[in-house]
Write a structure and sequence with these properties.
Layout (H helix, E strand, L loop, with lengths): L12 E5 L6 H11 L4 E6 L2 H10 L4 E4 L5 H8 L4 E4 L7 H15 L4 E7 L11 H4 L9 H11 L3 E6 L2 E2 L7 H7 L1 E3 L4 E5 L1 H13 L9 E3 L6 E3 H12 L4 E3 L2 H12 L2 H14 L9 H6 L6 H13 L1
Parallel strand pairs: 1-2, 1-4, 2-3, 4-5, 5-6, 6-10, 7-9, 8-12
Antiparallel strand pairs: 9-11
Helix pairs in contact: 1-8, 3-4, 4-6, 9-13, 10-11
Length: 312
């Protein structure tokens, strides 16, 4: 390969898995806005969302495909050069990624594949609580398998490690904020990122001609906020102009989220305990800022924009 950093082709077409989601949707918007010459093919594994995507993105081709249905993947991948691959939490990744690799190799046209991973994929999975490790919580705990399969495929993959809490997760906590002006969540230490910034990072990597991103494992956070949820409650108090208290007790967590999450609420709490036990792994970095060419959205800015939605 050339020593020049500018030797990767910019894909002329991009396939976006999870195009109805909170990363795939803004990625489609970004590419249409910044590079309208790129052909977009949007994938949903939910047949009911296909018509909605067609209405929302009339400039794109919309198809149904499923990671566990190889023919649908082969049809979706045909002729495409860029691939954004995001899988729901709890996905059985070994057959999913085995099928994906087969489909992309059959197409033979991949220029750049972006795959999201997360939740400390470099950690020893034996240290993760068994209910979480077995996928009962619906968290993406099989990402070491993802990396192994894609590394062995020799496809042009870049990993986007989502090493942060999504800011729109605050919407999960809306009921406590609305009813009691109380932020009910484990008091773990965590970095933060706006999913729309993740989408823009993905878009800019597709548009980059720097081949050195191929094979890399980039960890994404906003480079600014590394906070406990008790700190977030104090910040909310400043932004909202009224007192927001924090409740990090297990019994409050289970009471608040058992109806929403069912029996996995207690298992999610165990995962948050695991995160607290391993919080030394978190580190802010400036990769997102360097890629975007601007400061990423901060928690304060996000809260200012979404205050009405969180409090009413």
């Amino acid at each position: 390969m050339s020593d020049s950093i500018n030797s990767k082709s910019v894909p002329r077409s991009v396939l976006i898995f999870g195009a109805a989601g909170h990363i795939g949707r803004p990625l489609a918007d970004f590419l249409q806005r910044e590079a309208p010459q790129i052909q977009l093919r949007l994938v949903s594994s939910n047949a009911e969302r296909v018509d909605a995507l067609r209405r929302d993105f009339p400039f794109a081709e919309v198809v149904f495909a499923n990671y566990f249905d190889l023919p649908s993947l082969e049809s979706a991948a045909q002729g495409m050069e860029g691939f954004f691959v995001n899988a729901p939490g709890g996905t059985d990744e070994r057959p999913a990624m085995t099928h994906l690799v087969a489909a992309l190799k059959k197409a033979g046209t991949a220029v750049h594949v972006l795959r999201t991973v997360g939740l400390q994929p470099e950690a020893n999975p034996r240290r993760i609580p068994q209910p979480v490790r077995e996928g009962k919580v619906g968290l993406p705990m099989q990402h070491p398998i993802v990396k192994q399969i894609l590394d062995e495929s020799d496809l042009p993959v870049t990993y986007l490690n989502l090493g942060a809490t999504f800011m729109d997760n605050f919407f999960w906590m809306k009921e406590g904020l609305t009813r009691e002006r109380k932020l009910i969540w484990h008091n773990c230490l965590i970095p933060f990122i706006d999913p729309q910034d993740i989408a823009e990072v993905a878009g800019r990597l597709f548009l980059s001609d720097n081949h050195r991103h191929i094979g890399q494992f980039h960890t994404l956070n906003n480079g600014h906020d590394l906070m406990r949820f008790s700190d977030v409650a104090e910040l909310m108090s400043e932004v909202f102009g009224e007192k927001i208290t924090h409740d990090g007790r297990k019994e409050s967590f289970l009471q608040a989220y058992s109806q929403q999450l069912g029996p996995i609420a207690s298992e999610l709490w165990e995962f948050l305990e695991y995160e607290r036990a391993n919080e030394v792994v978190w580190a802010r970095n400036d990769f997102v800022e360097r890629t975007l060419g601007r400061k990423p959205v901060t928690v304060r800015e996000w809260l200012q924009e979404h205050a009405d939605l969180l409090l009413k």
